[in-house]
Write a structure and sequence with these properties.
The protein is 69% helix and 3% strand. It is built from 20 helices and five strands. Strand 2 and strand 3 form a beta hairpin. The longest helix is centred in the middle third of the chain and has 31 residues. It is globular, with a radius of gyration of 24 Å.
Amino acid sequence: MFSYVEDSSIQTDNKEKDPLINYDFELSSQKPDVQNNVSPNHSDSRQEVKLYRRRWWLLFVYGLTGLAKGQIYNTWPPLSGSLILAYHWSDSAIAQIPGATTITCAVVSLPLMYLVQRKGLRFGMLVSIFSLVIGCSLAVICINTSHSIWILLIGYCFNGVTSSMLTSSSSLLSVTWFPVSERTTATAVCTMSLQFGIGLGFVTGPHLMGIHVTAEDVPNKGNLTQDFIDSISTGIQRTVYFDLILVLLCLVMIIAYFPSKPPHPPSKSQLLNDTPVTDYVQGVKSLLLNKQFWILMLITGLAVSTATSWLSLASANYRPLDIGQASAGWIGFSSIMATTLGSLIISRVADHLLKKSKLIMMVSIGFGIVNITILSCIQQKYIILPFNSMIVLVYILTINASIGLGSIYPLCFELGCEIGYPVKEGLVGCLVTIAAYLFLFLYYVIYLTPAFTNDTHWMSWTTLCNSVAAFILLFTIKDHYPRVDMEESHSTDIVAN
């Protein structure tokens, strides 16, 4: 196992040779050969392994960009009433806004990761943040000119490029800059920062509006004063300007300092695998022919994506229980925040309990299954409770189910990297992301079917059945961790800079 040491003899101690703005990080030592396009040659071990404190800056910038993307993604649904009153947009039109991001993300993921694999993380982050700037700028144009929702939809297609980069490359960032004992935690921060931003969207948008729009205002809009409508328009403008300022801040930080990789790798496995392991097409083929990887993608979709879709439709799902939209919104917000915290805790445990990712996922999914089972029984009136007791229990059960099923998302990426090794982490994350978004899309398609829109009892039961299927499929995943095995079999010192 690696021992973490501070080496005062290293020339870069407290005075790093590379200046703050220096992006020429090519390794000078000879790169290892790759045999058969998939297996790295372990003979070259002359390059030393180092940790750099700047990795925390990169994680902060990546996380803040993810938070901004999540905030922008969830800007409009919480303001649906205001948009109907101010711009006469329909509910169905507003629902298409995040859908544009989802579709674009699924389409551009593979080509974008191809470019990132060839040109590095910095290139990907620059493409990501400039796409987000374009998307926010189009939103500002839309709100200040014709109020055409098509301008906004085009902007959210650009935002889909950002979603693709941030969700697909989280494991790539962690393995490039972090040691094995911090990888899963770093991946969790990257992946869940977007969820955290989505949760904040429930709060920041209505707060920045500065005016409260009630459910009664929408059907009675003919009785509202022009001053009230103008105040709503001003509040919407304030919200989109806030989004643009946040994105511009991320743009400045990424331009200032976000290198593709450190001068020296943070782990032995990254050192020995510091080559484009395969031709990109060959890497895709390798993963698609890997049955274990298919099972992992299926688990991700069945557990994580289904739970995410189920939670996003909480307002419709809990309507038969007489739970109002405001209460359902707070349930959704609290569940997202709790899931974000839960993923960080679970990931930190996984970093300390190496080679236990599968077991941790099974325990977490099992916990979610128990809670979603009780919740489904309440919805079917198998369990009868007074209303006040029922709403408290629904609140708790929803949060627990979300933690159990949603917190494993970072572990899905890390376990996928172990299964797909030595295929690059960016490509692994890309395919896992595509699988997750396909399941999200399928769930929404089912919901839009009239027969399923009117009766929402199927939502919780579908989530329960899919979670049970994911739990069973986990038994077929082999406990094989080649990256961790490599770290343990090549004892070395990690020098901290």
